[in-house]
Amino acid sequence: MKTKAYIFILLALLPGCSTKVVKESADEAASSSYQKQNNVIQAQQKFIDGSILESKGLIQEAIPLYLDALKLDPQPGIYFTVAKNYYKLNKLASAIDHGRKAVQMEPKNLEYLYLLASVFSSSRLDDSSATVYEKIISLDSTEVNALFQLALLHEKKRPSYSLELYKKVIDKIGPEWNVLVKLAELNERMGNVKQTVNTIEAILKLNPSDLRLQKMLIESYIKIDEVEKADKLINEALASFPDDIGLIEMKASVLLDESNWKNAYDQYKKLLNSDLINYENKLRVGTIFLSVVEKDSVNLQYAKNIFESLNKDTSDWQVNAYLGEIELRQSNDSVAIQYFKKATDLAEWNSQLWIRLGGLLFDKRKYTQAIKFMSKAAEKFPNDFAINLIYGLSLSQENEHKNAKVFLQRAVRINPSDITALSALGFTLNQLKEDEEALGILNKALTLNPNDIQLLGMTALIYDSKENFKMSDSLYNRAMEIDSNNALILNNFSYSLAERDLRLDDALEMSSKAVTAEPENSSYLDTIGWIYFKLGDFSKAKKYVEKSIEFDSKSGTVLDHLGDIYFKMGDKKRALEFWQKALKHEPDNKKFKEKIEKGEL
């Protein structure tokens, strides 16, 4: 009665508009309920539309619809779906954010937890991933997938704990192949392969016909060099399963390890003739024999037989590329080039094939072919460093220095610290008489590699031509400190000294060493002859310069030198004859013209 009276008093105290307020509150509640229900319906439609797009693989388009659904009705299932799709797009941060929200709303949902663990793992947040897998196991200790994934995560830092987890998995589901493989690999890494062997041997006693375990035991025997046991078990297994591809491959592998090449090849041929072996594995057989060529050259022929057999049934660029490498090793350059050309035709997208063939043509001094081939490569791969370099080098070798400059500059832009590219560009600029630019490039190269003999010699030569002898002599001396027997440096330095009538005895000593190293080098023979000329020994000078001309009769400088020698020996007629020959080879040389006009030095 007291309660009723109290309520009655309260009602009496309320204003007259109370009925209106109650009515409005009811209306607002009804409106809110309707809006919420409408949001749910709209969210469902958005979700369905997103699912349709997702099923078509249009994940980028599906996600905005899922996000709209979330705004309308933030359900854990929608958060999960968004996280899953962000994961597919490798947008891991967004996947983690939405995956966490799904788990927060339903912390015991294993599907949500598995997704979050996977995203953490892909983000290399191994500790976070492990924490989630441990949560799954705490919710359901029979979740062997969580145990397995947790074991994988702990392999590097906690291998012993990882072993325990793998053993738990085996206890729950039996000797599952993938788990046993992991167990064997982990034991091997820890030096416990023998334990794995013992475990599998014990299991096989209970089930000796399990071929999977037999194969794993064979692999373990091979790993611990128990080759005889492996071979014995392979033979026993082959008696029951003579056509098993895996066993045949193991047999071949054991024979290969024993260097029993012929029998190994015979076993592998069975694989090659089998329709059960896919093309990639047949290709791998060929590469196996290529990998042991260094042990016995007979394997090169076995590899060749395999690839030639594959080449009859297919037009594959890889086969042609391998055959090209084999022919190259067998010194069949022209055949190798044809195989590489075919490989390139079959895989024009593969820049490495263009580089391999272009490099081969360059190495074999087929510069004209290299230029023709690499011009196409440069069009297809304008930003490939190696292609621009090989093309530029080939052009330079054919004295097309203006064109070479373009591609060597491009190579240097792509890789500004490559010594080969810098030195090649420096040489080309020098040939174009752009010496200041050449010196800038070469000095940059020397800052990267101050002990490069070729760079030192080339830079010194340019400084010498500009009569900056302080710099050239400094570079020559540095080069000789590094390698006092380098014939090119000895020759160029001695010639520079002779031209300046300096240290002629030292120059003769250096030049003699260069000629001893390369007695048929025309330039070196001319240098020593010229030094003798400067020393006044015209007989020896004539002997060496004439010998130089035997090896190169088209050098204007050498012919001019012989003319000078004849003049000093009093034979002006012969002198004039050789000056005129020199002028034919260098028609713009003013010094030659002056000598001919004056009839004297």
Keywords:
Serine Threonine Protein Phosphatase 5, Tetratricopeptide repeat, 601 residues, 34 helices, single chain, disordered N terminus, mainly alpha, elongated
Number of helices: 34
Distance between the termini: 145 Å
Backbone shape: elongated
Helix content: over 70%
How much of the sequence is in beta strands?
A: under 5%
CATH superfamily label of the domain at 416-483: Tetratricopeptide repeat domain
Question: What value does the Rg take, in angstroms?
Answer: 41 Å
| CATH uppermost class of the domain at 416-483 | Mainly Alpha
CATH architecture of the domain at 416-483: Alpha Horseshoe
Structural category is mainly alpha
- The low-confidence runs, each spanning 5 or more residues with pLDDT under 50, are 1-24
- Mean pLDDT across the residues is 89
Largest sheet: none
Count of DSSP strands: 0
CATH fold type of the domain at 416-483 = Serine Threonine Protein Phosphatase 5, Tetratricopeptide repeat
Q: How is this structure best described in words?
A:
This protein is mostly helical. It has a domain at 416-483: Tetratricopeptide repeat domain (Serine Threonine Protein Phosphatase 5, Tetratricopeptide repeat, Alpha Horseshoe). It contains 34 helices and no strands. The longest helix has 38 residues, at 18-55. The radius of gyration is 41 Å and the shape is elongated. Mean pLDDT is 89; it is low at 1-24.
